[in-house]
C-alpha cells in the first residue's frame, strides 16, 4: 500500500470489515470505516465489533449508507478501499427482501465506482463470493468456470463483481475481486452455520440441519481472508478475480463433529430437507491466488473453530 495516508473500509462494522480495520490499525494505518449498521442482524453486535477500533485516534467511523453518502469526500486521499459492505446471506435473498440486495450490493457498488473512477491512485478490493459459481458440476471451482449463481444473493454478488470489472476495463480503475469461500472465526455473522452450531452446542439446544449432512464446504478462517485482502491490495498484475479459499473442505457431518470437539459438548441434531439456494458443494481451485498473490491459508479447521469458541466465551454470547 502506498503513502497517500489512509485506507477506506466499507462494511467496516461487519464480521470481515471490522477484522480488516483492526489489522490496518495494528499496522499503523489511518482508516475511514463506513457502515450504515443495517438490521440484517443486531447492530449492537456490529458496534461491539468496532468498539476497540473506536478507541484509536486513527480510526474515523462514518455511519452512513453508501448509496447516499458523499463518497468522493470520504475516499479523498485514500490509497486503498476494501469494499466489504453488502447485504449478506443466501436464504433471505428470495422474495420481497431482494430489493435490499439490489440496494446494498449493486447500487452501493455502482455509487462507489463512480466516485473511484476519477482517482487512478486508488486500489479497490471487492469482496466477492463463492456463491457466484452456483451448483457447478465440476469441482474445484475455477476462476475460469462459467458462473451460474444458485441464489438471488449470488446473482447480485456476481453482477457487482462484473460492474467493478467494467470500471476497471473502461475507466482504468485498479481493482481486484476476491471470491471468499465460507469465512468463519471470531465475529462471524449470527446467521452463518458455525455461529449457529456453536450457539446450539453451548446452549444445549436442538439444531436443525438442512440437507443430509453429506454436503461439503470449503471453510476459510477470518485471519486468512484478511491476509488475502492485504495481498490483493498490493497486487498490480493483470488478473482481476481470485478464489480466496482452500483452507479446509469437509462434509457438514464432519464439521458438526469438529464443533462438538471444539465446544466439548454434544449436539442434538434434527435433519430437514435442503434449503432453496444452498449448493451441494464448494471447493476453491487455488492455483491462481497462490501463484499471483502468494497466498495460502494457514489456519486449519480445528484451530480456527477453537478460536471462534473462545470468542463466544469471551463475549458471553450464550
Ligand atoms: N462471511 C462470508 O463467509 C462471506 C462469504 C462470501 C462473501 N462474503 C462477502 O464479504 C463481505 C462481508 O461479509 P460479512 O460476512 O462481514 O457480512 P456483515 O453483514 O457482517 O458485514 C457487512 C456490513 O456491510 C454493512 N452494509 C450493508 N449495506 C450497506 C450500505 N448500503 N452502506 C453501508 N454499509 C452497508 C452492514 O451494516 C454490515 O455491517 C460481503 O460483501 C459479503 O457478501 C462473505
> Largest sheet at a glance?
7 strands, parallel
User: Strand percentage, roughly?
Assistant: 15-25%
Do you know the CATH architecture?
3-Layer(aba) Sandwich
Principal-axis shape equals globular
The total tally of domains equals 1
What is the fold named in CATH at topology level? Rossmann fold
Regions with little confidence, pLDDT below 50 for 5+ residues: none
Q: What small-molecule ligands were found?
A: nicotinamide-adenine-dinucleotide
Estimate percent helicity. Answer: 25-40%
* Quaternary: single chain
Order of strands, widest sheet: 3-2-1-4-5-6-10
The CATH H-level superfamily is NAD(P)-binding Rossmann-like Domain
Give the overall average pLDDT: 95
- The N- and C-terminal alpha carbons lie at a distance of 39 Å
Return the string of H and E elements.
EHEHHEHEHEHEEHEEHEEHEHH
CATH class: Alpha Beta
Helix segment tally: 11
In summary, what is this structure?
The protein has one domain (6-314): 3-Layer(aba) Sandwich (Rossmann fold).
Structure description:
The protein has 318 residues and is of the alpha/beta class. The protein has a single domain (6-314), classed as 3-Layer(aba) Sandwich (Rossmann fold), CATH 3.40.50.720. The protein contains eleven helices and twelve strands. The strands form three sheets. Strands 3-2-1-4-5-6-10 form a seven-stranded parallel sheet, sandwiched between helices. Strands 7-9-11 form a three-stranded mixed sheet. α5 (98-116) links the parallel β4 (78-83) and β5. The longest helix has 20 residues, at 152-171. The N and C termini lie far apart (39 Å). The protein binds nicotinamide-adenine-dinucleotide. Residues 11, 13-17, 34-38, 40, 46, 65-67, 84-88, 104, 108, 127, 129, 157, 180, 182-183, 189 line the site of nicotinamide-adenine-dinucleotide (NAD).
Amino acid at each position: 500500500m502506498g503513502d497517500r495516508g489512509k485506507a477506506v473500509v466499507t462494511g467496516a462494522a461487519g464480521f470481515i470489515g471490522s477484522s480488516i480495520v483492526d489489522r490496518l490499525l495494528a499496522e499503523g494505518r489511518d482508516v475511514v470505516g463506513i457502515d450504515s449498521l443495517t438490521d440484517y442482524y443486531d447492530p449492537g453486535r456490529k458496534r461491539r465489533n468496532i468498539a476497540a477500533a473506536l478507541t484509536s485516534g486513527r480510526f474515523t467511523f462514518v455511519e452512513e449508507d453508501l448509496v447516499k453518502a458523499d463518497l468522493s469526500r470520504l475516499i479523498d486521499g485514500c490509497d486503498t478501499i476494501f469494499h466489504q459492505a453488502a447485504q449478506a446471506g443466501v436464504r433471505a435473498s428470495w422474495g420481497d427482501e431482494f430489493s435490499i440486495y439490489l440496494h446494498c450490493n449493486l447500487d452501493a457498488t455502482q455509487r462507489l465506482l463512480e466516485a473511484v473512477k476519477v482517482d487512478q491512485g486508488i486500489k479497490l478490493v471487492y469482496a466477492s463470493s463463492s456463491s457466484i459459481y452456483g451448483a457447478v458440476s465440476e469441482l474445484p471451482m475455477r476462476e475460469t468456470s462459467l458462473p451460474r449463481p444458485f441464489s438471488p444473493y449470488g446473482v447480485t454478488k456476481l453482477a457487482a463483481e462484473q460492474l467493478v470489472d467494467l470500471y476497471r476495463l473502461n475507466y482504468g480503475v485498479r481493482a481486484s475481486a476476491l471470491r471468499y469461500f465460507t469465512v468463519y472465526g471470531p465475529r462471524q455473522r449470527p446467521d452463518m452455520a458455525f455461529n449457529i452450531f456453536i450457539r446450539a452446542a453451548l446452549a444445549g439446544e436442538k439444531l436443525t440441519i438442512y440437507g443430509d449432512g453429506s454436503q461439503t464446504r470449503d471453510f476459510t478462517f477470518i485471519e486468512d481472508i484478511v491476509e488475502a485482502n492485504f495481498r490483493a491490495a498490493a497486487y498490480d498484475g493483470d488478473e482481476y478475480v481470485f478464489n480466496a479459499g482452500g483452507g479446509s473442505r469437509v462434509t457438514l457431518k464432519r464439521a458438526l463433529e469438529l464443533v462438538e470437539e471444539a465446544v466439548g459438548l454434544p449436539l442434538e441434531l434434527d435433519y430437514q430437507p435442503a434449503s432453496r439456494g444452498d449448493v451441494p458443494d464448494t471447493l476453491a481451485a487455488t492455483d491462481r491466488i497462490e501463484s499471483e498473490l502468494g497466498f495460502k491459508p494457514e489456519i486449519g479447521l480445528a484451530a480456527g473453530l477453537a478460536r471462534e469458541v473462545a470468542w463466544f466465551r469471551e463475549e458471553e454470547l450464550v
